[in-house]
Amino acid sequence: MENYSKHFLQVSAPLISVQFNEKGILHKELVEAFVKYDVKDAIWDNFMIRNRIPVIKYRIKYIETHEALWKGKNDKKGDEHSQLSPFNANSDIFPNGILSEKWFKRYAEDRSFAHIYVTSLEGGPKDDELQIEYINKLKSICGELNAHLTVVMASQSEDIDADHERVNRIRLLTGISKGNEMIYINKHHDPARSDIESFVDNLFNGYKTVASDFYTHIASNIRQRHRKYYSFPALSNLNTRVELTPLFLEARITLKLGFISQFIRPNNLETSIKYLVNAYQNLIDVSLSVRDVMSDPEVSDLDLNFYRRLRMLIDITAFHIVKGYFSLEEPLIALKKYSTHIANVLESFDYGDKNLQWSSTQYQLLAELMNMVPRSILIETSLKGSKKRNKNQILKVHFGGVRLFENHKFELISDPAFSYLEAYRLFKKEKHQFYSHIDILTNDTDIIHKRIGILKKAAGSLKTTVEKCYSDVELDSFFSYIYWQIAEEYKKLNSPDEESYIAYCEKSFEHIPRSQMALRQTLLKRLLSVTHEGKLSNRTISQVLEAATYSSDIVLPRNAFNNFTFPISLEVGDTSLFMIEPIIIGKDENGELKSEVHLYDDCITQVKIHSRIKLKRLKEILALPDADIKLAATSLELNYANLSSDSSETLSPVILKGSSNPGLKLQNIELQKEEDHFKGAFDFVLQSDQGDYHESRVVEFSQKIREIGVHKIDRMTLQFNISIKSGDEVFDITGHESFSLDKSLASYGSIYRLNTQSDILEKKAVAISTRSPHIIKSMPLKPNIVAKFPDNSESTIFIGETVRLPVYVSAKNSKINVEDFEEISLMGTASLVDEAVLPLSLDLGTHASWSNMKEDEPLDLKQLYRESGQVDNEYVLHLVIRPKSLQAVLENNDLTNDFRVKLDLSVITKDKNKSTNSENSVIIYPVAETFFGVRASPFNFKLSISPRYREEGSSDMPCPFVIFPANSQLKVPSDEGYSFMPLPVRLWQVNLMFSDFEQYTQGLEIKSIKIFMEPNNPELAIEEVNEATVSRPNVITQMFTTRSKSGFSHRNVTVKFFATIDWKRKGSEDINSSNTHKWDVALPLSDPRVILVMEKLDGNRFKMKYVIENPTSRIFNFSTHLLTENLNAEWHFDEVKNLAPLQQASIPVLPFNRHSIVYYASVSSEADPKLLKLPVFKVFDVNYRVSLPTLVTTDDVIVKENNTLYWKP
Fold this sequence. Notes:
Elements: H1 6-9, E1 15-20, H2 27-34, E2 59-63, H3 101-110, E3 114-120, H4 128-145, E4 148-155, H5 160-174, E5 182-186, H6 193-205, H7 207-223, H8 246-264, H9 270-289, H10 291-294, H11 301-327, H12 331-348, H13 356-372, H14 375-380, H15 383-389, E6 394-398, E7 401-405, E8 409-413, H16 416-426, H17 444-468, H18 476-492, H19 498-511, H20 517-530, H21 538-547, E9 568-569, E10 578-587, E11 593-594, E12 596-598, E13 602-611, H22 615-621, E14 628-642, E15 654-659, E16 666-668, E17 672-673, E18 678-683, E19 685-687, E20 696-704, E21 709-726, E22 729-740, E23 748-755, E24 760-767, E25 775-779, E26 785-788, E27 796-798, E28 802-811, E29 821-834, E30 846-850, E31 859-860, H23 862-866, E32 873-881, H24 886-890, E33 899-911, E34 922-935, E35 940-948, E36 986-995, H25 997-1000, E37 1004-1015, E38 1020-1024, E39 1029-1032, E40 1035-1044, E41 1052-1065, E42 1072-1075, E43 1079-1084, E44 1089-1096, E45 1101-1110, E46 1116-1123, E47 1131-1132, E48 1143-1149, E49 1153-1163, E50 1172-1173, E51 1176-1181, E52 1186-1188, E53 1190-1192, E54 1197-1199, E55 1205-1207
Parallel strand pairs: 1-2, 1-3, 3-4, 4-5, 9-22, 12-25, 15-18, 16-20, 27-34, 44-53
Antiparallel strand pairs: 6-7, 7-8, 10-11, 10-13, 13-20, 14-15, 14-19, 14-21, 17-18, 21-22, 21-25, 23-24, 26-28, 28-32, 29-31, 29-33, 30-32, 33-34, 35-36, 36-40, 37-41, 38-40, 39-40, 41-42, 41-43, 44-45, 45-49, 46-48, 46-51, 47-49, 50-55, 51-52, 54-55
Helix pairs in contact: 2-6, 4-5, 7-8, 8-9, 9-11, 11-12, 13-16, 16-17, 17-18, 18-19, 19-20, 20-21
């Protein structure tokens, strides 16, 4: 930001001047408390963020005397323009400037909206007159400047009452009111820092409105300039072609309003941004209007000064717009505005590829600002919000930036480090000469040092980014690139800085991941080509050793080897010459490998060690063709860790010492127990005269698991020695590499075996259960529990049923010490699965429990071991499906699919030596399973409702025209429920018919049946006539009556029917209960009807009684006709008992009455005895012109197609 004055860029915070009468009482405390609210010269402060921090900060200026206040006074005299105006000949922007830096300085340092005067009461009452006189003077000055005056009276007197009298007198004679204008504070009674801070907090919080009013008044005056007449001095003696136009004045006014608005609401810059955006466009328009003048080679110095000031205003206006959008937490808009600003300037001034240093400066300025803005704002980038505002906007977010596609394509940089890198890319020597408002570097050395400085800032910014935001992201490649560029810049200097070049090459090399071998080779070649002069460090030898792992043409000068100081001892991390491939796996008694182990099982650790260094290549690099080089591993140390949270015990550490022998490719090592570790020996030796023979070794050893948990190889350390024999001299290099093993995600590991015939290591994949080959899980010694179910492959369980299932359990493992276990138990669990044994989401309340035990309580098996229970012991497991809402289950469509109950038996063991919170303390493993088919109910019913008939004497149809005897059951007016209207009663029979009964109910026995009838109308009374019974095979019947409770006539009433059936399986005493579906049936209660009561007499004779019912208050007329044609038998109605003719023209039926028509008939002997078709009795309502169907009341008469009636004996 060195190209811009601080007055242009700093935060626009309201200015407060502070004056101490003397540096005495509370001076230090108040200054320290004021710091919290002092923004000083900051470019950014987080209080600017909208809706983030409620505290307003100010710029606080300390002055010695009241004379400094006059600097803020308007310097205008009479009708003259201010010296900050372009219309004043003495102004620095006369005759065509827009806004001077002095204007910004005036509001940042001179014109305060409030003045705090701190004085003391130490002088005594006689000095009060001087205090009053001086305060009145300050009051007069502040009044003239429209500034708010606050007087702080500080005291340390113990006589507070006397102080109050003095303060009240001073207040009375100065006319300063209480509150925020005159404040008394006593150090003796309020010494605590918190009290001072509280006083300062209240003071500055009270300034919010004062500051807002002060700067609002200034903004109002600025707006009034539109109506002002501007006089202009003569320009005849000035060499300028730039004319001051209304566009200039408009830009000046909008700029002022934009910056003054920041003072009015410094923590919400939305209004300021609107003004500044308009001002920016006005400035761009001004630049376009004077472009021809500026392109003239003979442009005057006066116009050049105008141009530089204009460019400066454009830059700072764009800067404040961007800063404002950051404060509104709109970084995407801010970055887009800045990108547009750079493009606008380059286009408006027709620079093209010129002015690169200015473009670089803009990216530096942006980077410095972004370093001040909270990283949370930059990282989140408000992408979601921006996306919602513009549906056509396409965003592609990448690390450090955003690619935005709208009407134009924007490449936005959202990380300051990348903004610095862009500035570095652009900062070059300008190809053309032009006028600039910033310093343009032309010296090559200065340019290189500037580029180096930018890169160093990029590195520092990237380091901050990593520490604050991306601590879990690997950014070494970015650091390596930056350091590489710095090194290249140092190399470009006329007098190359070799020391800095090597230092940054090494820093770049350190940050290159070892996986990027091509880059490391390139940089190694550079480093080794310049580091052979003088004494060489251990870092250089580590680089030489790494170079020997590549197939590159790196060669040191012959005399370089003499610059090393031997012996050399390398530290951990200096080299990466070895690769390891460890695995831990179990082995059972038969030698088979397994991924999980139990206590006292053998656990094999196998480590493949591979040398990456090529000793022949090392000889070439060191330029020692006659030397003999030997690499030997001198030690291999393995440390284990138990990942279980409650235990630190794990496998013992292993330390293997290396020998000088070449050794076998696969070495099985016998371990020897020491006090706190195992020891052994292994061989790993490579020699340059043997080529790459045996560059890999596999070491293998075994330990017994003595602690349950999750064990891992935590760390491995390999020590090595490289011996270089050149002539009679031997040069030694020692070092060690540490391998920290992290978790990896893999389903298999690799085990190596040696093919003795070919002497080749063969790799075999083995399954692992821990997702990491170097981690193994050990469990308690597994009890060998055997559990068996009886064969129930065709069994079905019904919802609501309890099944008692015998389980046969035995303990086969006699090696188990039951006292080592806190628990050995058997748990039965039930779950619903489909045909593919996949879990279902149905909640049917499926439970399993052992006899006489609570649900989900396991069966204790420890007694089996105490009794040496290797024989089968029988236990009973109860399986039940008991849902919360059976009706919801019955109506669930999923029950139409085939699914089953899966019953699992699992053994639970709990180690006595483990805490209850340990993940290894409880081990569960399955031992048996079985399946049951599931059905909602053993009975699939169909329901039908049939009318039934009782003789007239039962009062089912109480006719109002008939007088009943006194002993009848009819109610009288004094009875409860008496109705003046007759209450007809209808008799019904409910029929529950089994469907597919035999298929699912083999071995079931019905114990009781209860049918429930629930009307949906409370005015309907239903009475059961008898109990439900099985009247014939697969049919359950029950008689009931319906009547109105109040006499109100109901034509149809819906009744809900359902039944509960208690049943049991044969051979079991458990009674189960099953419910049927609920059926809604509409019963006609007040419609006229015809019912048939048929009785078979002797021989082939029948009595057919047709009853016409009228349960209404109206009189009906019916015509009747008994048809005997088209029957399957010949019917004869010639008996003398037949009083009614077969056809009647009109029969009246009175209200609440029955009319019976009886026929006696005989059938010819040739009739079919199984199914006899009955004559058709037609009843026609003469008045309403409708026919009444005939309803049957006996089970012997059935209804078939077209309502045809048949007698079924």
